Amino acid sequence: MGTTFRFPHRQLTSAGRERRVGVEIEFSGLGLRETAELVHKLFGGRVVSDHRFSYRVQSTRLGDFEIDSDASFLTKRKWEKYLAVFGVKSPAVGSAIEDIVATVSDEVVPYEITSPPLAFSQLPQIDELRERLRVAGALGTHAHFFTAFGLQFNPELPDLRLETLLGYMRAFFIRYEELIEGEDIPLARKVLPFIDPFPVAYIEQVLDPDYKPSLNGFMRDYLEFNPTRNRPLDWLPLFAHINQDLVFEYPVENDLIKPRPTLHYRLPSSLIDDPSWSIAKVWNKWVEIEDLAEELSFSHQKASIADGARV
C-alpha cells in the first residue's frame, strides 16, 4: 500500500475553487518520445513534437504535459548562433552537432516532465505516473555521481493577502531544515550552484516579530536580498503575478520568470528509480509547511487587529 496524500486545511482559493499545483520531475533513462507515449497511454490526449528535444502531450484528461530536455542549448537550438558566426548554415552540420550534444546530454542533462496545473485531489494520479516511469526504467538522482535531478512543486496560494504570504515565508524558514532532513541529496547538488540558500540576514528580518511591512515593502525586501530565481523556494513568479513592474526593477532573470499565483518549491533530489520513494511522501512534508503557514497567518492577522484597536 503506497503513502496516502495529505492535504492542507485550506484546499480552496479565496474564489472558492480547489487549489492547484504543478509538478515537475527530472529523470534520465527513458527517451523523450517513450516518455510522451507513456503519458499518452495513461492519460489520453495526443503526442506533439516541435523539436527532437521537446514533446507535448496535449488535451489529456488532466491537461497538457510537457516533456523535454532541461537544456536550453538543445531545446532552443542556441548552437545555431555560434555556427552563424562562422558562416555555417548547413542543416547537416547542425544535425551532426545535435547528435553529439544529445549523446553527451543523456549522461548529464536531465529530462523533465512538467504537469499541467492539477487540483490537489488529482495528485495521486501523478504518483501513478511516477510509478509507471520507474517500472519503464526511469533513473533518478543517483544514476550518475555528477547528476542533480530534482522534483519541483508549484503550489497555488489560497489568497494573496500580506498575512498569508508572510505566513508561508515564515513557515518555510522555520521548517526548512526538517523538510530536507533525511533527503538523499546528491553530490552535484552540494557542490554546484543549483540552489543557493536564503541569506541569514533576510531570514532573521522576516522572522522578527516586529517585521510588519506593506505588501510592496515585503516584495522589495525580498528582492533586495534575493534578486534571483536560485532559491529553494522561489517567490519571483508569484511576485511578478502581483506586480511585474516592481519585480523587473531589479536585476532578475526577466526572460525566465513566468508570472503565476504560485510558489516554486525546488526539492533537492528526485529518487524516481527507488521503489520506496513517492511524490506523496515529499508532498506530505510540504503540507506541514502549509498548516504552519495557516497558523502563522492567523496569528499575524490577530496581532494586526490588536495593533489597530490600540491605535
Top keywords for this entry?
single chain, alpha+beta, about 300 residues, 11 helices
Low-pLDDT segments, ≥5 res = 75-79, 186-193, 304-311
What gyration radius follows from the Cα positions, in whole Å? 21 Å
Shape call? globular
Number of strands: 9
Rounded average pLDDT: 83
Main β-sheet: number of strands, strand sense, barrel status?
Answer: 9 strands, antiparallel
Structural class: alpha+beta
Report the portion of residues in β strands.
5-15%
Measured distance between first and last alpha carbons: 56 Å
Count of runs of 4 or more consecutive helical residues: 11
Q: Helical proportion?
A: 40-55%
| Helix/strand order | EHEEEHHHEEHEHHHHEHEH
Summarize the structure.
This protein is an alpha+beta fold.
Explain this structure.
This protein has 311 residues and is of the alpha+beta class. The chain has a domain at 71-109. Helices cover 46% and strands 14% of the residues. It has eleven helices and nine strands. Strands 1, 2, 3, 4, 5, 6, 7, 8 and 9 form a nine-stranded antiparallel β-sheet that branches. Helix 9 packs across helix 10 (236-247). The longest helix is centred in the last third of the chain and has 32 residues, at 279-310. The termini are far apart.
Describe the protein's topology.
Elements: E1 20-27, H1 32-43, E2 46-51, E3 54-60, E4 63-69, H2 72-75, H3 79-85, H4 91-108, E5 111-114, E6 118-119, H5 123-136, E7 151-155, H6 162-180, H7 187-191, H8 200-207, H9 215-225, E8 233-234, H10 236-247, E9 264-267, H11 279-310
Antiparallel strand pairs: 1-5, 1-6, 1-7, 2-3, 3-4, 4-5, 7-9, 8-9
